[in-house]
Write a structure and sequence with these properties.
It contains five helices and 13 strands. The chain is 27% helix and 26% strand. The protein has a single domain (4-142), classed as 3-Layer(aba) Sandwich (Rossmann fold). It is of the alpha/beta class. The radius of gyration is 17 Å and the shape is elongated. The strands form four sheets. A six-stranded parallel β-sheet has the order 5-2-6-7-1-8, sandwiched between helices. It has a three-stranded antiparallel β-sheet with strand order 12-11-13. It starts with a strand and ends in a 6-residue tail after the last helix. The structure holds zinc ion.
């Protein structure tokens, strides 16, 4: 039986690299894959999955209102399909994660989702929350903090380099930058450890 997979991490853990390598392993065996990425993510260009080590591939984009079950089911007319890959899965809505579960359960096609677990305030992204709740297989991909510990958190810095502790979950454009950190350095950076 096919399964729903969620590979999660902080930033810079090599999610896109892992996705593209895995997709390559399928196509190398003559199998057909479908790649999705979020329309909101235009760091590279719309409809491209690019890894920091230079791998890249075209991908379909999902918009906030895309019906992924309908889209994938329509693709099956005239195409074989052995596996679906979704990058930036944190931007999926709860409904879209359920649509992907339906692809697994009704169409018997495995779906591999890759995404960031939590935002700069340490809160789960909606897509990640739903995937953590209903995926069959959960795998953590490890990013590294500047101290050498595993990085599980993300710090957002404004244009002046100050850690941001409040605001919108997703900011498109602007001068903010992001850094993956261990929990200890995350709390030290945003200054929200309770005082003793
Ligand atoms: Zn650290």
């Amino acid at each position: 039986m096919a399964q729903l997979y969620f590979y999660y991490s902080a930033m810079n853990a090599g999610k896109s690299t892992s996705l593209l390598q895995s997709a390559h392993n399928y196509t190398e065996q003559g199998m057909q894959v479908l790649l999705f990425t979020a329309a909101v993510d235009e760091r590279v260009e719309k409809g491209v999955i690019a890894s920091r080590i230079g791998l890249r591939s075209d991908a379909s984009v999902f918009e906030p209102d895309s019906d992924l079950f309908a889209q994938i089911n329509a693709h099956l007319i005239g195409h074989k399909l052995h596996c679906v890959f979704v990058d930036e899965a944190q931007f999926l809505s709860r409904e879209q994660v359920d649509q992907l579960a339906k692809v697994v359960d009704r169409l018997n096609i495995p779906v591999l989702c890759y995404g960031i677990r939590s935002d700069f305030q340490g809160e789960l992204f909606p897509g990640s929350q739903r995937l953590l709740n209903i995926a069959d297989k959960l795998t953590e991909l490890k990013a590294v903090c500047h101290c050498g510990r595993k990085a599980t958190m993300i710090v957002r810095r404004d244009g002046d380099g100050n850690a941001v502790s409040a605001g919108e979950q997703v900011v498109i454009g602007g001068n903010d930058s992001y850094e993956s950190m261990c929990r200890n350095h995350f709390f030290l950076a945003v200054g929200t450890y309770p005082s003793a």
